[in-house]
Write a structure and sequence with these properties.
The chain is globular and about 60 Å long. It is α/β, with parallel strands linked by helices. It contains 10 helices and 6 strands; from the N terminus they run αβαβαβααβαββαααα. The protein has a single domain, classed as HUPs (Rossmann fold, 3-Layer(aba) Sandwich). The longest helix has 17 residues.
Length: 230
């Protein structure tokens, strides 16, 4: 991860503090916090939640807080949550007056609150076409000096990140299922089934916040049972 370390070092020459948007259980966030740790006096890690208080997420929060004493974790509502509440998505409590925020709005609010200029993200070009187009425009394909946002993992692939985690003995990321790496897609059946198998208490919390998610489980089980009987 030489390129990532060099990019981080370059930003650290300008400031001793940074913001990191951290998914807790995702591989990119786990690797990026470890890369940032030696370079900054303070790292404000922002965990964006859709359902607060999930025990398997708390496991990661506790791990990172103990391993990186210069990292401070704060929890804020995910920027998508405003839209969900406004529309009553998946049966959540509906409020048509709910104010909506973008990722950019949330980033600016956190930076202003803590008086920090630079924000780091775990985006990679290999994540999607849109991210590839965006990141290739920046300095070293990672640094946007105009917005003071940095993406040190830009040129890496999932296998590179997983190799770094294994090599450095970091906590293993969760594997929720296809297309779900950070537990933010409430309607993803793989995520719901993973919770049922591994953290049923957390699944209950998801159902309490998004009641219609329970129907997805019911429909999945019903379809499987019908197929088994045919």
């Amino acid at each position: 991860m030489k390129e990532a370390a060099e990019i981080i070092h370059a930003i650290a020459q300008e400031t001793g503090r940074c913001v990191l948007f951290h998914s807790c259980s995702g591989k990119d966030s786990i690797a990026l916090l470890d890369l940032l740790y030696p370079h900054f006096e303070e790292i404000v890690c922002v965990y964006m939640f859709l359902v607060k208080g999930l025990r398997h997420i708390d496991r990661y929060l506790n791990y990172a807080s103990a391993k990186y004493p210069n990292a401070k974790f704060i929890q804020v509502p995910h920027y998508a949550l405003g839209s969900y509440i406004k529309t009553g998505y998946m049966g959540c409590r509906m409020d048509e007056t709910q104010r909506q925020f973008t990722m950019s709005d949330l980033t600016d609010a956190v930076r202003q609150r803590y008086g920090i200029d630079w924000a780091f993200f775990g985006f990679k070009q290999s994540d999607s076409m849109n991210r590839r187009i965006m990141l290739r425009r920046y300095e070293r394909q990672a640094i946007n000096r105009e917005t003071k946002k940095c993406y040190p993992l830009s040129v890496y692939h999932n296998k590179d990140i997983l190799e770094y985690i294994e090599k450095n003995g970091l906590i293993n990321p969760e594997r929720y299922g296809k297309g779900q790496s950070s537990g933010t897609n409430i309607s993803n059946i793989d995520y719901l089934l993973w919770l049922r198998s591994n953290h049923p208490d957390d699944l209950t919390r998801v159902f309490e916040a998004f009641p219609l998610a329970e129907r997805l489980i019911f429909e999945h089980d019903y379809e499987n049972k019908r197929n088994d009987n045919n």
